[in-house]
From TrEMBL:
InterPro entries: BBP2. It holds the Pfam family BBP2. The lineage of its organism: Bacteria, Pseudomonadati, Bacteroidota, Flavobacteriia, Flavobacteriales. This is Porin. The keyword Signal applies. It comes from Winogradskyella flava.
Length: 333
């Protein structure tokens, strides 16, 4: 009887240990699918002018992207594999992978301690207010600041939680958007200092071979009331005396559990040799209506350039402004 009791206790203990192991190791699958309709208000749709920003640059009915994210989370280690397809996915990955336009993120991480995490692989950029996945952005179209910076980095980073409110990230990666390999022996360096959801970001590469050079970027926001949020992004970039700078404000007002409305006002300018380089003021008004896992986003956008006429009006004449109406649908799971 004693032996039987001992064996029973061992089996129960082993079962509890196995259940604990299952709780510690967790595989989750998530993702999104999006599509949109877009028509130009101030230009014929068949001229195909674009805003000059990333993604959502087609007229008529168009696909955004589909992404599938596999996340494995253990007690100390884990990994993420984010697969994308569609025009937005291919644009985000520059078709640079072995299988074109499919790997958005692929990294493993190690929680070295309670306050330190090391990440090795490819992850989406820490620069800027916006991200690649449309479900995580309020506006469906993207800003000039987001479109001008890197989308992803391939390398090693270390995240440090210095306190409940203060964080630090340090990274060494391949140069700007060289997501597969660095053939020149050059590397890029990044840092992020965060305090209460306000982030100061720094990035540097040599600027050679199409590199980005130096960029300093601030990203943050404030809850002005229970229903009113103001997001902020500002950046300055320099690559051997040339580059860009700009700022964007993102006021967003939540009217109910299912609807919110937001505005993105952005000023973006090139700098370098020569006077009166082009700049643009872009205003984007977006509604966001949520039905379970489906997000419907109607959007009106107007871009107006100075010292540049990159668009055509309805008479086929060059003009400095372009207005568009977009209706997007994003499903998340």
């Amino acid at each position: 009887m004693k032996k039987i009791m001992t064996l029973s206790i061992l089996f129960v203990a082993f079962g509890l240990y196995a259940q604990e192991e299952e709780k510690e190791k967790k595989l989750t699958i998530s993702g999104s699918v999006d599509a949109y309709f877009q028509t130009f208000i101030t230009s014929p749709d068949d001229t195909q002018p674009t805003f000059g920003t990333a993604f959502a640059d087609q007229t008529g009915f168009a696909l955004g992207m589909g992404n599938l994210i596999f996340s494995y989370e253990g007690e100390k280690v884990g990994a993420v594999l984010d697969l994308v397809t569609g025009p937005r996915g291919e644009g985000a990955t520059f078709n640079s992978d072995i299988v074109d336009g499919i790997v958005n993120q692929a990294y493993a991480y190690w929680n070295v301690s309670e306050n330190t995490t090391l990440t090795f692989g490819r992850w989406n950029t820490f620069l800027g207010y916006e991200v690649i996945a449309p479900a995580a952005n309020f506006n469906y179209s993207t800003s000039y600041l987001f479109s001008s910076g890197p989308f992803s980095h391939l390398g090693l980073k270390a995240d440090f939680a210095l306190s409940d409110d203060l964080s630090l990230m340090l990274a060494i990666t391949n140069p700007w958007d060289t997501n597969d390999t660095s053939t020149t022996g050059e590397y890029a360096y990044g840092a992020q200092l965060g305090y209460k959801d306000q982030y100061l970001n720094l990035y540097y590469d040599s600027g050679n071979n199409g590199g980005l050079g130096f960029e300093i970027d601030y990203t943050g926001g404030f809850d002005l009331s229970e229903d009113f949020f103001l997001g902020i992004n500002a950046a300055y970039n320099d690559n051997d005396g040339e580059g860009f700078y700009g700022a964007a404000l993102y006021p967003q007002y939540t009217t109910s559990e299912s609807f919110a409305i937001g505005l993105r006002g952005e000023y973006f300018s090139l700098h370098g040799d020569g006077d009166d380089l082009p700049s643009v003021f872009a205003t984007t008004l977006t509604g966001s209506y949520t039905v379970n896992n489906l997000i419907i986003k109607p959007e009106i956008r107007l871009d107006t350039w100075s010292n540049n006429e990159p668009y055509l009006d309805n008479d086929g004449e060059a003009t400095d402004n372009l207005a568009a109406f977009t209706l997007a649908a994003i499903f998340t799971f």
